[in-house]
Amino acid sequence: MSGSVGVGIIGAGVISDTYLSNLTAFPDVEVLIVADLDPERARSRAEQYGVPAWGTADDVLAHPDVQLVVNLTVPAVHVEVSSAAIDAGKHVWTEKPLGLDRESTAQLLRDAEAAGLRIGSAPDTLLGPGFQSAKRAILEGAIGEPLFAQASFQTQGPDLWHPGPQFLFARGAGPLLDMGPYYVSALVSLLGPVDRVAAVGTRPRRQRRIHTGPAAGDVFDVEVATTVQLIAAFEGGQQAQGQFSFDSALERAGVLEIHGTEGTLLLPDPNHFEGEIARIEPLGVLLDDDRPEQPRIAVPQEGVVVGRGLGVLDMVRAIAEERPHVATGELGHHVLDVLLSAEESVAGAGFVPVRSSLSGPVPAVPRDFDPFARTL
Ligand SMILES: NC(=O)c1ccc[n+]([C@@H]2O[C@H](COP(=O)([O-])OP(=O)(O)OC[C@H]3O[C@@H](n4cnc5c(N)ncnc54)[C@H](O)[C@@H]3O)[C@@H](O)[C@H]2O)c1
Q1: Of the candidates 66, 140, 179, 292, which lies 20 to 30 Å from 42 by C-alpha distance?
Q2: Does residue 364 lie in a domain region?
Q3: Does 171 score more than 60 pLDDT?
Q4: Contact 40 CB / ligand 1 (< 6 Å)
């Protein structure tokens, strides 16, 4: 094998398609095996992308050349699958959320550290040129000191497009834990750790229906709130409000605004790897009847646009270069902690202090980051 790092994928469902498309194109990564509970699903994904082997999760863990496991299973088994990979001596990249609770995810991080292994956690949209160009603009002072933020995600719900949407309405998901990680990871990467949150939430429909795929027409139970509104206070003194809904007729997702002492930055959708970035300048002194349009000043997006898999690529390079990776397990754990605190607040706990913090700022990606360079 060349200098590329051997990767095994566990979970060959919907999102494995885009992961495989990108991971098989990166020279620094070699996908060696795909696994799923459903062997046919694993085989067909492996064949689709020319991956030489397929099988069960145990086959991935036993593969001698797999150094990093990519966990694309459903949230209910994230910790179980990631822990088994750590026990087998493999680094782990996991889809979000890191797990369902604080304790087992904290134990997972401790076990990985004790074994000298790394955990990386989605979302890796954080590494995309859209978010990173916005982050760079803020670090370079484009809006002065960040003061407060707004985040909003509202859709009709993923039951309309996902062929197996039950897990998206179960513990570990709902709009808060399924979509919240994109928005909260972006905010924590920009503003630092969250100190406390409060939230309200509702579950207007107790049951929903599958609309696509072989199970279309089936009805399933909704376990979690499907509309949540939260407010958060950051350790650095900034504040944010966020709205997450699977109940809105008006589809409007990807709203992320950071307001600073000298301007506002409109960020790309944090669930996307690219997008428009715009800066708004204050109007200054105005007369009451004089309210001109505020121009959106474009902030250029720099960097190569790819997609999911960037977090895995950053991890394998970071391991080789002995530097920290960007989307760490620690970040994933803190984001989960924030979202679980919001859930507890929804359940009646009022303002919930967030227990975890971060050991340092979330690093920015270098301007010259090239996914398609061979660096290893
Ligand atoms: N679908 C999306 O658009 C999307 C986008 C971003 C992130 N994600 C995340 O990716 C993860 C997977 O989502 P999905 O939409 O691909 O789900 P999915 O249900 O389509 O696929 C999950 C796959 O994991 C397999 N699986 C479950 N438990 C397993 C186990 N113990 N061992 C081996 N295989 C197992 C299932 O058989 C299934 O094929 C979730 O955490 C989700 O939040 C999904």
Answers
A1: 179
A2: no
A3: yes
A4: no
| Cβ(225)–Cβ(339) below 8 Å | no
Rounded to whole angstroms, the Cα distance separating 150 from 256 reads 6
* Residues 161 and 214 reside in one and the same domain: yes
Nearest to 129 by CA among 334, 267, 323, 288: 267
How many A from CA of 20 to the centre of ligand 1?
A: 13
Work out which ligand 1 atom sits closest to the CA atom of 11. 24
Position 152 scores a pLDDT of 98
Ligand 1 atom with minimal separation from the 16 CA = 16
The CA 225 to ligand 1 mean position distance, Å, reads 21
Residues 201-229 have pLDDT tens digits of 999 999 999 999 999 999 999 999 999 99
Helix (H) or strand (E) holding 41: helix 39-48
Among all chains, which residue has been given the structure tokens 């049951």? 207
Give the position of tokens 């094998």. Answer: 1
Encode 296-327: b = buried (16+ Cβ within 10 Å), e = exposed.
Answer: eeebebebeebbbbbbbbbbbbbbeeeeebbb
Q: What is the DSSP-derived secondary structure letter of residue 340?
A: H
The residue whose CB lies within 8 Å of the most ligand 1 atoms, and thus the one to mutate among 10, 22, 72, is: 72
Instruction: Judge if 198 and 87 occupy the same domain.
Output: no
For residue 76, report the distance from its CA to the centre of ligand 1, in Å.
10
Give the domain-ending residue among 273, 298, 323: 298
Question: Cα of 326 to ligand 1 centre, how many Å?
Answer: 23
**Is 222 among the domain residues?**
yes
Helices (H) and strands (E) in the chain, counts: 9, 17
Torsion of CA 162, 166, 172, 176, to 10 degrees: 60
Q: Is 227 in the pocket of ligand 1 (CB under 6 A)?
A: no
Domain boundary at 121, 143, 160, which?
121
The helix (run of H) or strand (run of E) holding residue 196 is strand 194-202
In this structure, is residue 58 part of a structural domain? Answer: yes
The answer on pLDDT for 1 being more than 60 is no
Decide whether any atom of ligand 1 lies within 6 Å of the 95 Cβ. Answer: yes
Domain that residue 180 falls in: 129-298
* H or E element at residue 289: none
SS3 83: helix
Domain of residue 294, CATH code: 3.30.360.10
